[in-house]
Every structure is written in C-alpha cells, then in structure tokens.
Write the structure tokens for this entry.
Amino acid sequence: MKKLKPIVTGMILGIVAKLADFISGDSILMRIGLHNLLNNFNIFIFCICVIEIYSTSIRKAMLNCMTFMLSMILGYYLIQSLSFDYFPRRIFLMWLIVSLGSPLFCYIISLRRKDNFLFIFGTLTPLIIISKEIESSMGLFETLDLSLIYNVFFLIFLSVKLPIKNTQRIVTILFYCALLPFIHVLPSINRVISMIFSLSLL
C-alpha cells in the first residue's frame, strides 16, 4: 500500500492542479490562493523535498520522486485531454523530461544526509529555488494572495526539516541569508527548464 502513495498523491495533485484552471476569479478557492499555488513550481519542489525527507533510503526517494511526478503529469493531462479537443504535445514532452529528471534533483537534496560539507547543497538548493520563484512571481499578480503565505511556510518547514543536525541548520541559515540579496540575478526554474527543453529538441 505504501508503494501506491506516490502514485495516488501525484495523480490527485495533477487532477486538482488542472481543475484549478477552471476556478472563477471571484471564487473562494481563488481568494485563498489555490490557483496561484498549484500553478507555481514551488509546490512540486516542496513535494519532492517531503518525499526525500520521509523516504528510508536515497534509492527509494529517487524512485518515489519520479513515480510521483509521472503520476502528476498523467493526472493533469488526463483532465486536459478530456476537457479540450487538443493535446499540447510540446508542453507535455517538457513536463515528461522534468519528471524523468526529477530523481537527479532528489539526489541533490539527499546530499543533506552527508556528514561532510556537501550537505549544504542538499539543504540550500530547494530554499534558493523557492525564494527565487517567490521573487519572480511577485510581479505576476496585481495583489499579494495567500499563496505567498504557503511559500513562506515551505521555506520555514524545509529550513527545519532538511538539515539533520542543529549545526547544519545554523550553517544553512547563514548561507541562505548571505545569498538572499543576490537572488534576483539567478534564473528562474521556469527559464532553466525551458532552456533544457529547447536544447533537448536540437
């Protein structure tokens, strides 16, 4: 039954993410920021981190991560194909590449388990990505919504759960604070994925 959790969770999240596109602007779900949250990469970064944190081994974490992502895009584009007459093959292919590459990102996060200084890559990488997505999305919406609160929760939760030792938490926070003023010069994950997708089609 545990093996089905990533599949079921990914499928449900994908279906809900697509159904969120049909939410009207004055609905309560839009007002609580559900649409903006589900259309942001941060929710998927957070889910991958949670999978890695609660997996008993790196191999299981990588497998569960890829299973979750593949199930998520399957659920999303299942609703897409049932709701519309067209199927966006290029966008689906991009997400398929992201899903197949997600175990690599999961492995980077798993570096947090190292006893040496490599742990900083595992703890700091998702925090920087989430912070960059927050900074990038600030100009997309006319007013701030509750999705910002969700993203701040992601940062707080991961800053506590990703580091294994208190010394690692302190070092992670110090590095994070040092890099935060330069967050604006980093490319967003949307841009990075688009570049990777373009290169894969060459």
Summary: The chain has one domain: 2-200. The mean pLDDT is 82. The two ends are 41 Å apart (CA to CA). The CA atoms of residues 7 and 91 lie 21 Å apart.
